[in-house]
TrEMBL record:
Pfam families: Dus. One of its GO terms (molecular function) is flavin adenine dinucleotide binding. Gene3D superfamilies: Aldolase class I, Putative flavin oxidoreducatase, domain 2. It catalyses: a 5,6-dihydrouridine in tRNA + NAD(+) = a uridine in tRNA + NADH + H(+); a 5,6-dihydrouridine in tRNA + NADP(+) = a uridine in tRNA + NADPH + H(+). The active site is at 133 (proton donor). It comes from Xiamenia xianingshaonis. Its cofactor is FMN. Keywords: Flavoprotein, FMN, NADP, Nucleotide-binding, Oxidoreductase, RNA-binding, tRNA processing, tRNA-binding. It is an enzyme of class 1 (oxidoreductase). The keyword Metal-binding does not apply. This is tRNA-dihydrouridine synthase. CDD domains: DUS_like_FMN (cd02801). Belongs to the dus family.
């Protein structure tokens, strides 16, 4: 459904010409119900190698309003690559998901966006374009955050996808490409003019990779710059962080990445904090039970080899007594049974630890 979005900017003087221009722009925008709720939506970030359907399912159960797929290569989809297509498989419990595409050719991005929309139908919440990935193998091809260096091309991609699909189209990018050169507000404006329906901003420069801290003020500056919804992202690990990000920036939604790894409960915590409720941290037993369930969900999809569970398992065990020893053993785990054996040993170790006190 296409709808004129009311101007979300407030407190800023804009001339009549500017207002008329914005009205024309906003007419083309599609309302995103997932970003329009009465409470601040909390989203699971796209994370390659992490946000697979098993993890997305667990995060939805814990209160995430929307989850993103791992980034999916538009080129790979265009070659009907089976591994790439697997990335957009959705679990039965997933009634809605945002699919993130990466690439740099507007026509390929547009045709594959249309393919994804056809394949997922009403389960597709929106299509997101990766304009923030700083990995060398991505950037050297002109994909991911390289698009921040070429706003015309980035805008052409958004424009092309908008012309090919009827679902909303969003973009996720960083504070800027080169360290110290904050281009995100102007970049967001450029994408808005091309028809983007929402933007997600991670407050680090691409050249920074994951070093230092995410600057949340850039989220506020992007919010000032555009009228489409702005999703704030970077270093949110608790309910208090999310509340601070919202208060500091006025962002329309909060996106959580690493803070959810091994901790899908972070969504319940954030929602509790924003509603003024206290929530309890999961116990050791609950963490291990979640890790076991996660392993089983992965095995149901991937078969016996669930090597990708290693990273998740390490995250579930982080900070637990005996975790350092367990981590070394996790590096050799392949099957559900292997992971269960490490979790069993950790529980026994914890029980010994308690009885010795
Ligand atoms: C392992 C890993 C994989 C990631 N993969 C993607 C990706 O596929 N697409 C994307 O836009 N960002 C990706 N990111 C970036 C996150 O979505 C997020 O912007 C970043 O981690 C900052 O948020 P956080 O501090 O909540 O983790 C990835 C981050 C990590 C740690």
């Amino acid at each position: 459904m296409r709808r004129v979005r009311p101007d979300r900017r407030s407190g800023r003087h804009r001339g009549r010409h500017d207002a008329a221009r914005l009205d024309r722009l906003t007419e083309a925008h599609v309302s995103i119900p997932f970003l329009d709720g009465p409470t601040t939506p909390i989203l699971l970030a796209p994370m390659a190698g992490v946000s697979d359907r098993a993890f997305r399912t667990l995060c939805l159960e814990q209160g995430a309003d929307l989850t993103y797929t791992e980034m999916v290569s538009a080129k790979g989809l265009s070659f009907a690559n089976a591994k790439t297509r697997h990335l957009i498989d959705v679990a039965p419990a997933e009634t809605h998901v945002a699919v993130q595409l990466f690439g740099h050719e507007p026509d390929v991005m547009a045709s594959q966006a249309a393919w994804v929309e056809d394949a997922l139908g009403s389960r597709l919440a929106y299509l997101d374009v990766n304009m923030g990935c700083p990995a060398r193998k991505i950037v050297t091809k002109g994909d991911g955050s390289a698009l921040m260096k070429d706003p015309d091309l980035a805008a052409a991609i958004v424009h092309a996808i908008k012309g090919a699909v009827s679902c909303p189209v969003t973009a996720k990018f960083r504070r800027g490409y080169a360290e110290g050169d904050e281009t995100a507000p102007a970049f967001a404006r450029r994408l808005e003019a091309a028809g983007v329906d929402a933007v997600a901003v991670h407050g680090r420069f691409a050249e920074q990779l994951y070093r230092g801290h995410a600057d949340w003020d850039v989220v506020a500056r992007v919010k000032e710059a555009v009228s489409v919804p702005v999703i704030g992202n970077g270093d949110v690990r608790s309910g208090a962080d999310a509340a601070a990000l919202v208060a500091q920036t006025g962002c329309d939604a909060v996106m959580i990445g690493r803070g959810a790894e091994g901790n899908p409960w972070v969504f319940a915590e954030v929602k509790g904090t924003l509603a003024g409720r206290a929530t309890q941290k999961p116990s050791l037993e609950e963490r291990l039970a979640m890790a076991r369930r996660h392993a089983r969900l992965l095995a149901a999809e991937e078969g016996r080899n669930i090597v990708r569970m290693r990273r998740h398992a390490m995250a579930y065990l982080a900070g637990l007594p005996g975790a350092a020893h367990a981590r070394a053993k996790l590096c050799g785990c392949v099957t559900v049974e292997d992971f269960d054996a490490v979790f069993d040993a950790l529980l026994e170790e914890a029980a010994r630890h308690l009885s010795a006190r």
